[in-house]
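Possible regression after last week's pipeline update?

I re-ran a chain I had predicted before the update to compare outputs. Posting the input and the new output here so someone can diff against the archived version. Not blocking, just want to make sure nothing changed silently.
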Amino acid sequence: MPTRDSWTVKLAKKLCSRRDKRRCQLCGKSVRGGKKKQNKSYPRIHHKAPWSKYPELRTDVRNLVTLCVECHEWIHTEAGREQRHKWLREALAECVVGTKPRMVTP
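New output (post-update):
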């Protein structure tokens, strides 16, 4: 299984950010590059189906969504729970039950 630092995960995240036109998929704010820890506008790529529970979906671009820092923090709170569950259902329907995987593979 790929680790968070593997090139396949990094490539999947880059493809997700491009697909989403570098915009937060919750609030629509533009999220552009820069140094991750120092830049509040750095895109956060969120796994709809949790990384730890669905390792087979770690590099499936359909399981990824681009978020801004604020929305990424919110999605991990109790207030974001409903949205997390909605995304999980969508990811599982599309990635697991659905069609051929769109994964980055070595």
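Follow-up from reviewer: compared with the archived run. The chain has a mean pLDDT of 85. Marking as no regression found.
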